[in-house]
Amino acid sequence: MNSDNLKFVLRELSERPLHKGHARDLSIPTDTGKVVGLSGVRRCGKTFLFFETMRQLMERGVPRERIVYLNFEDDRLHPIAANELDQVLRCQRELFAAARTGRIYLFLDEVQSAPEWQRWVRRLHDTEDISIFVTGSSSDLLQRDLSAAMRGRSITLDVFPLSFREFLRFRGIVPRDHDANSENEVRAALAEFLRWGGFPEVVVAAPELRPLILDEYASLMLWRDLVERHAIRNENVMRALLRHCFRNTASLLSLNKLHRDLESMGVSAGKNTLFDYCAMLEEGGLVHLLPVHDGSVRRQTRNPRKLHVVDPGLATAFAARAETDLGRRLESVVFLQCRRRSRVWHYALGEHEIDLCDAEGSAFVNTCWNLVDPLTMNREEAALQFARTTLPAATGVLLWQEAVVDIEQRIPGSRPVWRWLLEQPGSSLEANRVGL
Asked: pTM higher than 0.90, yes or no?
């Protein structure tokens, strides 16, 4: 890492105006005494949260020169050697006198691109008057690295693409109670959200650009976060697996069936390879694989996992007809909202299926797109009764997008999904945080 290039980057970033965008529901705590990690897929808004936190620090009177931001994917910094990372603070203090005294706030973006960053961050935390914030595009990997290096000195916050409530905020839609026009506007916005998802750049882009941006994201995640990072040799298998997952959100994933399906399409892969590749997708935060609700770990292992993708827009990038699977996308959006509140969720199988239940069996959620058809209504009523029998101590809800007028009286515990999504807090630090 050339020190002259580094100084150029540091000065440029110190003079860059910090644009104030739309607020997110998640905010970064700045004085925890811990290294704060943000993990999430690419382009979900981690860097924006950094800039928003930097802006808030400046509003509190912290000099800009004591706020250091670096993106380790900046080509001007490469190649980076582990013994060169100390140049960051040294160069900042050479450039700015205000950085030589007082607390430094260090924001490190895509930190996994810097070799042996964990040791450097731990030493800075232990020896400097400093608050450190890091991001990475691989959720589990970042947590493991922080856990191993920091030994109780860090917390990790999960960052997702926009929730539906944040989506409305970005679009300038303000829901109003007891207003039919407002309700229609919100319901139409939900249908759009299910198609294009919540990546911030996609949400504010012109309609004709959205599919192009999503295709670019999908390719970037395939190459940078999977093929290159894990040195995958069989790219065709990973591509086929990624396509299968994004086209089949909110469905059960059986490796045996998947193996047979891929073989029938001429894609040859061993079951162990598929298992490893699924783990890579989950590690990267691209998919969530829910175990069946069962006290036996063996039975959990033997049963299929329930698959949810991290954003419905990625399903659009891989699906031929985006309008045909809105019900499954809606179920995944409901899961993601629950996941923002709590880390561990299961599904339950038996006479009927319970879409979501927490690990303690104290809450459950079922989702149905359309409750107008009497047969569908009877099926969902039976599933609701099954959930209450299977989880007698749980509180639950049946969510729907379309229903008959008096559905909430006919099926107690049922609610319009758009209203439920608006009422759910977007993030909880206590639920989001992982002490490492």
From this structure: yes
